[in-house]
Write the structure tokens for this entry.
Amino acid sequence: MSGPLLLEGRDIAVSYGKKTAIFTALHSVSFTLAKGESLAVVGESGSGKSTLARAVLRLVPLAAGQVLLYGEDLATLSARELRQRRRDLQLIFQDPLASLDPRMQVGDIVAQPLRVFAPQLDAKARRDRVVSQLESVGMPASALARYPHEFSGGQAQRIGIARALIAGPAVLLCDEPVSALDVSIRAQILELLESQRRQRDLALLFIAHDLAAVRFLCSRTLVLFRGEIMEEGGTAALFDAPAHPYTIALLSAALVADPRRVRGRPKLPAASTDFVASAQADACCAYLGRCPHAVQRCAQEKPVLREFAGGRVACHRAEEIASA
């Protein structure tokens, strides 16, 4: 870890529905995030990435587990106490324009957190803080009196970042913050996030589909599939030598700019279906039906998330796959 522990998830479970129609979106997900560290959460759509962010912010109730900020369980806080703790947990949204109130001027949008977390500031001090914050993310002071629709997507995301940073959070939760932007603008926003992380010693929880962005920005990566952790480890090591078949599939499906690398990329073997019929419902591996390396044990015994090669992996055959 880069510094002292800030945020921790312990066996987080989130379920939706009632009685017989219950869908479990997260199964016993645990993670740690230290000061100055950047942790990516990756996986296909429906894997539980955004649900994890909402659980951390207590926007959805936990069926089980804990979220701790500075070692304090957020579930034990009163509504007033939780509101103050949210100063340290700020969110950057996927759609920058949709996240900004179209009826408000940019100056009021960015100043809104100060009205909640720093009500002692007078109008001049608040305006000075807003101008300084906008300039730090590459936006001019002239933006204050304008409305969100007057800006491009990249500019709107800079405004959203300014709003998230102005209260001085310890942790930024970034929910696909560049997926709605053009490729060239994505690079600029990622560089802005990285520079702000370094300057402020921020911790980032970065939810993404864009694996190139993850490799650029994040020191560690957590891989989710159907609400379960398949693998976790240092980003460089995990990308260079993935241990779980699902991680291998994700990396193989990622877009590659160089066509020579695409031609040279090995094709994935077909998924094994030999053991699916005999699978023991919740007792089997979540990835069983799509895994090309499945064996009988995978249908009868759910793999436990365990230490492996400096990270964690939930796969019975990780050693064999790594040595192949």
Notes: Residues 183-200 form the longest helix (18 residues). The chain has two domains: 5-238, 245-323. Residues 245-323 form one domain. The CA atoms of residues 76 and 82 lie 9 Å apart.
